[in-house]
């Protein structure tokens, strides 16, 4: 499918990634932030308004979210591969919590799976969530299985026990929009059942993608407004792995690099997690 | 060559048949003089490609030198009719209900099948009577025709035979005499109508005509032959045996043939004029001498 | 990328349309006392019970991942006659199709081929194709190491649909609404609970209303589903009719057990004789509407003579015989003596024609602009109509169905709404270009051989002879015809 030049989100998805000049701030960042626990939202207000603007075209298969739609089946493949890696794969009646659900592309699809008991999907943008809710009404099969909440993770009531926790907590194309990812992940972790998974997708910071996004797209060609890419927020896979595995009760990290090939769609490419889009999954200790 | 443009034939089937014929010839048996295959019909002489080419060239050269070698003209006709032209003529017959009947019945025109007594007894305006009159005037008989030997396909051999036997009817219908000048004019007509190459090759005989005859050919008979040969229906599809009692003008009109100026009359008048001129010249010479 | 269906057990997959929703709708119907009947919700509503539609339903029901979809079949004819299709072994329906090994493999996979009466199916291992104008010939027989391999299977369409229906009955779970016409297709409406404004609602003559998550148009060349979706269909009429008949031959064929299909390209169109079990063959003669009408007026004796002539005599003879009101048998007897043909490279003599089996239908080329719309997918003749000269019509439909069933399975296992365009895109991408190429090739073949004169005629003969002489090229064409070769697209 041709990439529409106006499709900021597509470019965003494809081209994100920057080198980090400064020594990785991530560790220091979460160390600092974790000390100053606050109830403030993890969400950047500028990002919220950016996605409000995208709301109307969210479900247009040829609109700016096309690449997200195309990527969605891979999310399920990835989750399935996570579950298959368990010594005893889970059965049905899975509970999903989808953070930053946007228009509900993943949330709807997760709710439709017969193995799903329920999906709770949250997003801080009211416009986007209104789109998600309206769209879900188009499929009677979703009724009773899918709940949308206009909130950030901080706004959700803390689970009081494993019954209120989730089998799968998903963060698709979310972490890179978070100003303080360490705090955010700390908050998320509480919602995961023992033996449950956090799955996410994001993009690595690399010199090549820094060149294509910051220099070519923004400065040379100018098809992306300056400042769209806040590449300093992007996180590499080993940083995520490091965060979770540092005495925090997580195991079995999994990663899958994917590349968008025009004409073929999203394709799994081994090793590409180092340079571009990738999925990351990690399991909470039982 | 302008004669080649025969609109009806070209439009409908020329290249198709050409290819069909080539295919047939390509598929036909190949043999050498040492293992000549048995004949396909009585009198058939199977020829190799080289023999056929030799026959065509040899018969063409000799018959040009001697236009009265009817046997060689016949051989030339057969040698050049394949691979394409005789098939085209056969298909022209197959496309016409009458042509098909002729192919089915395979009638022969000989003094046995056509009684001259009967023909002479017909009214003067009938096809049969005109034919008989023409034979009598020219002093020829329908039995002087060579039989076909060198065409491999027996049905096509019959088509060639039929063409040859109908030739005198064409003479009778057009009134053209058997002398070289008349033959050339009729061959031109036949070429435009049947596309048989021998009839076209016969045009070389024009070079052998006297200047006055040649002038007549180019001004009168040549243009007539082309116009009528192209415009008329395929004359091979006339079932002559069934037309004998028909009014000859009627048949000409149906076929689209106009009778050309009588060649013998022209020649007679021409001779008379020349004679008169000569006599006048002699007279004037005499008078001069007298003076 | 596909997840093997084995990773999901049937039990694990609940109904796609939840039973609660249906209950909800019923309650709603009671609460709103309006005259309009609320539609019943289905995951798949298939309009059209022909080979394509039935194969799709059999495929969906036989795959574990899609077995729990709520499915309805709408067919305007009663299906009992098809279900109970039975004829004595000396009679055959005149509508037969060639099934490629790849179609048969698919039908075996969905468990339908086992229900097709194999005694009425005839495979063939060789094809003889030649140019009626020039005689140039191509002989499709396998090289020694593949000898005996099937090129295609001839089968009555009714034998196939009957087998498919038996398989669907065996699997159960398809609501069959036969003998019911589609009276209207319109988009649903928005209610308090749901927004069905993107769901097609099919109103049946029996009064039922079915709302479809995915509406499948398997409803033939004049597809009402396609019209509803606003999908255009382009193409042209060939000004040709296909004359079909069931023929009795003088024997089982020159190959004995190993059967041969014959096709001769005449200037009016190709004439094909395809083997059926025993001494029978089926005829497909594409010709001008006038000549087709003429053929249908002939006595059985003269019709048989015309069919024998079509494989033997020259186009000149055929053209003449088409002008005769009778007497073709006599004409054939005479012309056969003067026409050269190798009788072992043409079909055996036809000696009988089954009463009432001579029929004709117009030939068209049509191609829908797309096979998919929002909550709409087209398969088979609703998507494309092809010239029958390559025997690919039914096989293209089977190819569509296999692709669509896989697409639906992928969508179900990945939580996609199977009706939305996004989910259906792979189906369109996989089939459109491939079908378009085949339609184009077959169309060009028809046009190539409809030419009677001009430089094309010798060139096509050279081409045919060259292909015949080149083993690998011929092998490629045979593999394509058998559907076993490398996919060109």
From TrEMBL, chain A:
Location in the cell: Mitochondrion inner membrane
Binding-site residues for S-adenosyl-L-methionine, renumbered to this chain: 75, 100, 123, 172
Residues the entry annotates as binding Mg(2+): 173, 176-177
Claim: S-adenosyl-L-methionine is one of the keywords in the record: yes
Keyword hit for Endoplasmic reticulum: no
An example Gene Ontology CC term for this record: extrinsic component of mitochondrial inner membrane
EC number: 2.1.1.64, 2.1.1.-, 2.1.1.114
Record key words, sorted: Magnesium, Membrane, Metal-binding, Methyltransferase, Mitochondrion, Mitochondrion inner membrane, S-adenosyl-L-methionine, Transferase, Ubiquinone biosynthesis
Broad class of where this protein is predominantly found: mitochondrion
Record membrane topology: Peripheral membrane protein
Reactions it catalyzes: a 3-demethylubiquinone + S-adenosyl-L-methionine = a ubiquinone + S-adenosyl-L-homocysteine; a 3,4-dihydroxy-5-(all-trans-polyprenyl)benzoate + S-adenosyl-L-methionine = a 4-hydroxy-3-methoxy-5-(all-trans-polyprenyl)benzoate + S-adenosyl-L-homocysteine + H(+); a 3-demethylubiquinol + S-adenosyl-L-methionine = a ubiquinol + S-adenosyl-L-homocysteine + H(+)
Enzyme class: transferase
Pfam families cross-referenced by the UniProt entry: Methyltransf_23 (PF13489)
GO biological process: one example: methylation
Metabolic or biological pathway: Cofactor biosynthesis; ubiquinone biosynthesis
Molecular function via GO: 3-demethylubiquinol 3-O-methyltransferase activity; 3-demethylubiquinone 3-O-methyltransferase activity; metal ion binding; polyprenyldihydroxybenzoate methyltransferase activity
Requisite cofactors: Mg(2+)
Role according to the record: O-methyltransferase required for two non-consecutive steps during ubiquinone biosynthesis. Catalyzes the 2 O-methylation of 3,4-dihydroxy-5-(all-trans-polyprenyl)benzoic acid into 4-hydroxy-3-methoxy-5-(all-trans-polyprenyl)benzoic acid. Also catalyzes the last step of ubiquinone biosynthesis by mediating methylation of 3-demethylubiquinone into ubiquinone. Also able to mediate the methylation of 3-demethylubiquinol into ubiquinol.
Assembly, per entry: Component of a multi-subunit COQ enzyme complex, composed of at least COQ3, COQ4, COQ5, COQ6, COQ7 and COQ9.
Sequence similarity: Belongs to the class I-like SAM-binding methyltransferase superfamily. UbiG/COQ3 family.
Name listed for the protein in its UniProt record: Ubiquinone biosynthesis O-methyltransferase, mitochondrial
UniProtKB/TrEMBL annotation, chain B:
Basic and acidic residues biased stretches: 276-285
Cofactor section: Zn(2+)
Pfam families assigned to the protein according to its UniProt record, in alphabetical order: Coq4
MF annotations from Gene Ontology: 4-hydroxy-3-methoxy-5-polyprenylbenzoate decarboxylase activity; zinc ion binding
InterPro entries xref list: Coq4 (IPR007715), Coq4_euk (IPR027540)
Annotated spans, Disordered: 272-291
Compartment list: Mitochondrion inner membrane
GO CC aspect terms: extrinsic component of mitochondrial inner membrane
Pathway(s) served: Cofactor biosynthesis; ubiquinone biosynthesis
Entry keyword annotation includes Nucleotidyltransferase: no
Family: Belongs to the COQ4 family.
The protein's role, per its UniProt record: Lyase that catalyzes the C1-decarboxylation of 4-hydroxy-3-methoxy-5-(all-trans-polyprenyl)benzoic acid into 2-methoxy-6-(all-trans-polyprenyl)phenol during ubiquinone biosynthesis.
Protein name: 4-hydroxy-3-methoxy-5-polyprenylbenzoate decarboxylase
Species name: Amorphotheca resinae ATCC 22711
The organism's taxonomic lineage, starting at the top: Eukaryota, Fungi, Dikarya, Ascomycota, Pezizomycotina
Gene designation per UniProt: COQ4
From TrEMBL, chain C:
Cofactor: FAD
Top-level EC class as recorded in UniProt: oxidoreductase
Membrane topology: Peripheral membrane protein
Domain FAD-binding as annotated: residue spans: 42-433
Superkingdom of the organism of origin: Eukaryota
Reactions it catalyzes: a 2-methoxy-6-(all-trans-polyprenyl)phenol + 2 reduced [2Fe-2S]-[ferredoxin] + O2 + 2 H(+) = a 2-methoxy-6-(all-trans-polyprenyl)benzene-1,4-diol + 2 oxidized [2Fe-2S]-[ferredoxin] + H2O; a 4-hydroxy-3-(all-trans-polyprenyl)benzoate + 2 reduced [2Fe-2S]-[ferredoxin] + O2 + 2 H(+) = a 3,4-dihydroxy-5-(all-trans-polyprenyl)benzoate + 2 oxidized [2Fe-2S]-[ferredoxin] + H2O
Annotated compartments: Mitochondrion inner membrane
Any one Gene Ontology cellular component term annotated for this protein: extrinsic component of mitochondrial inner membrane
Main location, first listed in the record: mitochondrion
A GO molecular function held by the record: 4-hydroxy-3-all-trans-polyprenylbenzoate oxygenase activity
Pfam families: FAD_binding_3 (PF01494)
Swiss-Prot/TrEMBL keywords: FAD, Flavoprotein, Membrane, Mitochondrion, Mitochondrion inner membrane, Monooxygenase, Oxidoreductase, Ubiquinone biosynthesis
This protein's pathway: Cofactor biosynthesis; ubiquinone biosynthesis
EC number: 1.14.15.45, 1.14.15.46
Subunit details: Component of a multi-subunit COQ enzyme complex, composed of at least COQ3, COQ4, COQ5, COQ6, COQ7 and COQ9.
Family: Belongs to the UbiH/COQ6 family.
Role, per record: FAD-dependent monooxygenase required for two non-consecutive steps during ubiquinone biosynthesis. Required for the C5-ring hydroxylation during ubiquinone biosynthesis by catalyzing the hydroxylation of 4-hydroxy-3-(all-trans-polyprenyl)benzoic acid to 3,4-dihydroxy-5-(all-trans-polyprenyl)benzoic acid. Also acts downstream of coq4, for the C1-hydroxylation during ubiquinone biosynthesis by catalyzing the hydroxylation of 2-methoxy-6-(all-trans-polyprenyl)phenol to 2-methoxy-6-(all-trans-polyprenyl)benzene-1,4-diol.
Name under which the protein is recorded: Ubiquinone biosynthesis monooxygenase COQ6, mitochondrial
């Amino acid at each position: 499918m041709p990439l529409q030049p106006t499709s900021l989100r597509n470019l965003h998805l494809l081209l994100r990634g920057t080198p980090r000049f400064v020594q990785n701030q991530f560790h220091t960042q979460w160390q600092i932030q974790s000390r100053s626990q606050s109830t403030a939202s993890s969400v950047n207000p500028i990002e919220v308004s950016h996605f409000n603007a995208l709301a109307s075209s969210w479900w247009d298969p040829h609109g700016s979210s096309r690449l997200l739609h195309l990527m969605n089946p891979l999310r399920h493949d990835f989750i399935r591969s996570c579950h298959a890696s368990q010594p005893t794969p889970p059965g049905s009646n899975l509970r999903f919590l989808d953070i930053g659900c946007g228009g509900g592309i993943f949330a709807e699809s997760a709710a439709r799976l017969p193995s799903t008991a329920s999906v709770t999907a949250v997003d801080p943008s009211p416009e986007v969530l209104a789109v998600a809710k309206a769209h879900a009404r188009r499929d009677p099969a979703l009724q009773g299985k899918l709940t949308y909440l206009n909130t950030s993770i901080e706004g959700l009531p803390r689970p009081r026990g494993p019954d209120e926790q989730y089998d799968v907590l998903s963060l698709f194309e979310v972490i890179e929009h978070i100003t303080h990812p360490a705090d955010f992940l700390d908050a998320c972790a509480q919602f995961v059942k023992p033996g449950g998974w956090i799955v996410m997708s994001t993009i690595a910071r690399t010199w090549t993608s820094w060149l294509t996004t910051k220099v070519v797209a923004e400065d040379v060609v100018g098809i992306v407004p300056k400042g769209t890419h806040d590449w300093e927020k992007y996180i590499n896979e080993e940083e995520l792995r490091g965060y979770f595995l540092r005495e925090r009760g997580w195991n079995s990290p999994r990663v899958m690099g994917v590349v968008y090939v025009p004409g073929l769609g999203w394709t799994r490419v081994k090793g590409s997690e180092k340079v571009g889009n990738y999925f990351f999954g990690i399991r909470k200790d039982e | 060559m302008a004669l080649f443009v025969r609109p009806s034939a070209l439009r409908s089937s020329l290249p198709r048949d050409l290819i069909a014929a080539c295919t047939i010839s390509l598929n036909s048996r190949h043999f050498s003089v040492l293992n000549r295959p048995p004949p396909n019909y009585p009198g058939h002489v199977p020829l190799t490609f080289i023999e056929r080419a030799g026959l065509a060239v040899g018969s063409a050269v000799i018959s040009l030198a001697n236009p009265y070698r009817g046997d060689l003209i016949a051989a030339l006709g057969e040698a050049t009719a394949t691979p394409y032209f005789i098939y085209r003529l056969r298909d022209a017959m197959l496309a016409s209900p009458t042509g098909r009947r002729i192919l089915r019945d395979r009638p022969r025109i000989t003094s046995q099948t056509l009684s001259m007594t009967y023909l002479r007894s017909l009214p003067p305006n009938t096809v049969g009577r005109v034919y008989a009159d023409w034979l009598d005037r020219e002093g020829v008989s329908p039995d002087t025709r060579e039989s076909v030997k060198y065409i491999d396909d027996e049905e096509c051999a019959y088509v060639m035979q039929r063409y040859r036997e109908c030739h005198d009817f064409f003479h009778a219908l057009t009134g053209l005499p058997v002398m070289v000048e008349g033959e050339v004019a009729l061959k031109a007509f036949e070429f435009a109508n049947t596309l048989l190459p021998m009839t076209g090759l016969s045009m070389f005989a024009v070079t052998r005509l006297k200047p006055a005859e040649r002038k007549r050919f180019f001004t009168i008979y040549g243009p007539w032959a082309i116009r009528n040969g192209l415009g008329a229906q395929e004359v091979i599809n006339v079932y002559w045996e069934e037309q004998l009692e028909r009014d000859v003008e009627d048949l000409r009109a149906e076929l689209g043939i106009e009778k050309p100026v009588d060649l013998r009359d022209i020649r007679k008048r021409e001779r008379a004029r020349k004679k008169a001129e000569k006599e006048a010249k002699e007279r004037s010479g005499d008078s001069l001498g007298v003076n | 990328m596909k997840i093997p269906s084995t990773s999901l057990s049937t039990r694990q997959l609940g109904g796609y349309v939840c039973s609660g929703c249906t209950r909800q709708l019923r309650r709603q119907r009671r609460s709103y006392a309006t005259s309009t009947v609320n539609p019943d919700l289905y995951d798949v509503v298939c309009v059209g019970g022909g080979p394509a539609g039935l194969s799709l339903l059999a495929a969906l029901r036989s795959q574990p991942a899609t077995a729990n979809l709520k499915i309805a079949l709408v067919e305007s004819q009663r299906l009992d006659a098809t279900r109970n299709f039975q004829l004595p072994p000396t009679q055959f329906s005149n509508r037969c199709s060639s099934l490629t090994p790849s179609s048969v493999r698919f039908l075996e996979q969905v468990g339908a081929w086992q229900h097709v009466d194999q005694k009425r199916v005839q495979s063939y291992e060789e094809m003889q194709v030649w140019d009626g104008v020039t005689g140039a010939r191509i002989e499709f027989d396998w090289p020694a190491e593949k000898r005996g391999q099937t090129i295609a299977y001839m089968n009555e369409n009714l034998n196939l649909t009957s087998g498919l229906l038996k398989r669907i009955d065996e699997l159960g779970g398809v609501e069959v609404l036969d003998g019911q016409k589609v009276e209207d297709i319109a988009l649903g409406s928005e209610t308090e609970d749901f927004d069905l404004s993107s769901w097609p609602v099919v109103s049946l003559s029996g009064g039922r209303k079915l709302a479809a998550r995915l509406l499948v148009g398997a409803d033939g060349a004049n597809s009402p589903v396609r019209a509803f979706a606003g999908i255009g269909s382009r193409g042209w009429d060939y000004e040709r009719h296909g004359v079909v008949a069931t023929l009795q031959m003088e024997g089982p064929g020159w190959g004995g057990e190993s059967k041969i299909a014959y096709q001769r390209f005449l200037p009016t169109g190709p004439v094909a004789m395809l083997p059926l079990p025993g001494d029978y063959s089926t005829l497909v003669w594409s010709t001008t509407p006038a000549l087709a009408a003429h053929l249908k007026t002939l006595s059985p004796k003269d019709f048989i003579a015309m069919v024998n002539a079509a494989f033997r005599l020259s186009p000149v003879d055929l053209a003449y015989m088409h002008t005769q009101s009778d007497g073709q048998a006599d004409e054939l007897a005479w012309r056969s003596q003067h026409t050269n043909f190798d009788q072992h490279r043409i079909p055996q003599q036809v000696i009988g024609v089954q009463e009432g089996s001579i029929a004709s239908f117009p030939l068209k080329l049509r191609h829908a602009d797309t096979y998919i719309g929002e909550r709409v997918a087209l398969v088979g003749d609703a998507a494309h109509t092809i010239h029958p000269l390559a025997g690919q019509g039914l096989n293209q439909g089977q190819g569509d169905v296999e692709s669509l069933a896989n697409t639906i399975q992928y969508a179900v296992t990945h939580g996609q709404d199977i009706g939305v365009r996004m989910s259906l895109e792979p189906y369109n991408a996989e089939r459109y270009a491939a079908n378009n190429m085949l339609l184009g090739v077959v169309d060009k073949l028809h046009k190539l051989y409809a030419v009677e004169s001009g430089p094309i005629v010798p060139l096509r003969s050279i081409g045919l002879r060259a292909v015949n002489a080149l083993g690998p090229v011929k092998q490629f064409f045979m593999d394509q015809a058998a559907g076993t070769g490398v996919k060109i697209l």
